[in-house]
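Annex B. Sample input.
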Amino acid sequence: MSNFICVQCGTQFSATAAPPETCPICTDERQYVRHEGQAWTTMEQLAADHHNRFEEETHQLLGIGSEPQFAIGQRALLLQLPGGNLLWDCITLLDDKTIERIKALGGIRAIAISHPHYYSAMVDWADHFETEIFLHVADRQWVMRDSPRIRFWNGTTKLLWDDLTLINCGGHFEGGTVLHWEGAAEGKSALLSGDIIQVVPDRRYVSFMWSYPNLIPLRAAAIHRIVNTLQPFHFDEIYGAWWGANITSNAKLSITNSAERYLRAIGS
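Annex B, continued. Sample output.
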């Protein structure tokens, strides 16, 4: 029995004797099945030819991503806080060096994930660090490996600790979540956005999509929901899903301007 991992999206499945026939996350219109067809790996196989890179994004915020790039290629973020460390989003590879590095930094108090494309090997991570996983209940159907460590939350916001707040914006997924960090570096506040709010190469702007690889836009109502949900929160910075996908000043204004530009572009 093995917990097979989808090569295309990096999602780890419940233990089976043989690989699943398909990955529901990849057959959904927001993702895709690789051109070579469905393929599977295991954690042991992945660790044989991949490793994790660690890079400080800002004070108390450590990026963790796999090299060579695997699956979707996002990087996770480890917030190092007085009340305990939070792992925001997740990557698939968890090897001995990664476990040692994170334990030396104080371990992980909890994991929180923006949307199903980054669920990856969240249960392995939670088991190794003996912690819980916060997921929005609206995306419950996309959990491919269940665990008693998963805590489904409901509603628009969930307060954690040290001025951390999970915010359900919807959009890319109904349960799409961002993380507000009130006490970020140098007195600034930050938003950790995954790709619910995607920092684009022109880092003055962000964008929003139903499907990024298949280029399916969001409707106007979803854009208004995101903007209105974030309205009560102040933030100076945005840390996105990829290395370097960060906005380090005027971040809230960037979202407002980007939403207006997006709505003009779709004729709303």
